[in-house]
């Protein structure tokens, strides 16, 4: 019940924030971007996810102050604010506001580095390792494995942000997986709050009222990675890391949208809840890392 309550709290707060801020987003010329159908929508709506997590974190902090949570759980809760949501959200916001470069995939980021350019993709990788240091007390292997998993999952969330609702659906699948993995539910409240906050924007995203942008997709992907670190043992983490790395590598050679469109079950899930005008073949027009 604690995990469900955390997820629901994130969803309710983000939905309420979007309802109150929707007009400001819609009227912003700075945030206006064209989606896959050429319609102008506000990008970086994922900042609502970050704000929702911060607000939920404030309530969490009050609970800690009242003595209802141990010191170790208080530390984990602080990581929600300082690491996954705010940190990855800020990196994505830089991409959304300042145009990001045409650099795609980790190979592209490494090529850019050889030319003296530091991309947000590389910053994301370093940040993920730092979050691993914060989250996982242990030896170097444990810390690096956790950091790489969080960073790789963050980029996968970004890669899925090519169509309305796709990244949030990825987050929902991630929430089910980490919830079913058997970790103490209280430990999962952090990532579940973040993923719940993403779910609060699902209808707006599906109805093409906004785009999460890198701001939101980075955060949701990182939350999935973080949840997997908490929920899985070493072997499970290695498997999850291999899957995330494989998806990142695959994105260099194939289009996820084409793969999804070519598999009937995946296409059905991908189209579920979207507008009738949704193109059968076009992905979202947005800048990704």
Highlighted features:
single chain, 289 residues, mainly alpha, two-stranded antiparallel ribbon, 2 strands, 2% strand, disordered C terminus
Characterise this structure.
With 289 residues, the chain is mostly helical. The chain has one domain (2-271). It contains 13 helices and two strands; from the N terminus they run H-E-E-H-H-H-H-H-H-H-H-H-H-H-H. It has helices at residues 2-27, 47-65, 71-98, 105-114, 120-135, 140-160, 166-180, 189-199, 202-206, 213-231, 234-250, 256-262, 264-271, and strands at 32-34, 40-42. The chain has a two-stranded antiparallel sheet. A hairpin with a 5-residue loop joins strand 1 and strand 2 (40-42). Helix 7 (166-180) runs parallel beside helix 10 (213-231). The longest helix has 28 residues, at 71-98. It is globular, with a radius of gyration of 18 Å. Residues 280-289 have low confidence and may be disordered.
